[in-house]
Amino acid sequence: MLEPKKDSSDKDEGELTGGKRLIKKLYKEHHHFTDIIVADALYCKSTWIKEVLSIGMDAVVRVKEERLHIVKDALALFKCRQANKEWIVNKGSKSYIKIQAWDEDNFEMADSEIKVRFIKFVEEIYNGDKSEIKETWIITTDKFTSAETLWKIIHKRWDIENNTFHQLKTEWHL
């Protein structure tokens, strides 16, 4: 368990710095403890990606900032073509999701020579007679995992954040 003042050497540190220290510590104690580290939009920084790569793992990071050059470049490219992949989740049910994924590799992070894969997901979510459209962007250093699996990974991260952390905070007061 991390102890804020003790673990941060009596200094205030941000989540990003704490995250870097945590993955280094986990790697030192457990070596290759996972294949992919999944993070939210706060971690969409080349310094974080470098840290993850330095311990031999891949990163999957949610992207939200439209002003980033990588986002502008990817969206301009994707506008000119059809999705690379389409699939349906819960096919045959009244509540289902149609997903389209645009997937392109070799985008450069700002201030770095790191090449990442950028994936844009567009979800048409149907629930009875209601429908809504959501768009999600991620970057990843993983060159091999399918877009469908990466979509599942990013959604599981949301489940953990929205359910587990909420439960720990509200029911366990942690």
From TrEMBL:
GO terms for biological process: DNA transposition. Residues 11-173 form the Transposase IS4-like domain. One of its GO terms (molecular function) is transposase activity. This is Transposase.
